[in-house]
Amino acid sequence: MSRRAQRPPDEPPRRVAVTSPRTAAARRPRYPATREIDEQTHLGEVYMRSLLRTQFRLAMFVCTVLGCVVCGLPLLFLLIPRLREAELLGVPLPWAVLAGLIYPAFVIGAWLYVRQAERNERHFADLVERP
What we know:
Blueprint: H1 3-6, H2 23-26, H3 33-38, H4 42-79, H5 81-85, E1 87-88, E2 91-92, H6 93-128
Antiparallel strand pairs: 1-2
Helix pairs in contact: 4-6
């Protein structure tokens, strides 16, 4: 009796996967993205361009924010005369802010920039080292 006769009539035929022993040889080997970057292939250039674009956007954002703060403070003192006349520890407020208190803003901006830039690099490294 054949196999076909042993199967009940309402059961659909079983699917069988047919493979060649040379299937693995026919597949193109997958190279890691780091190799693409090292060999400067088109794909490697795309990866590097994406990292550079991300870092550039971050730098432009931080510079824009700090530029707005630095340029906005004199404008604020110009538009609000009471702030021009105020004093902080015997020093006029505009001088105190522009000569001393602006530097902590630069330090905080630089710290945030470095932190975010390192995060971008970690994400990039995870992307290119993914198997």
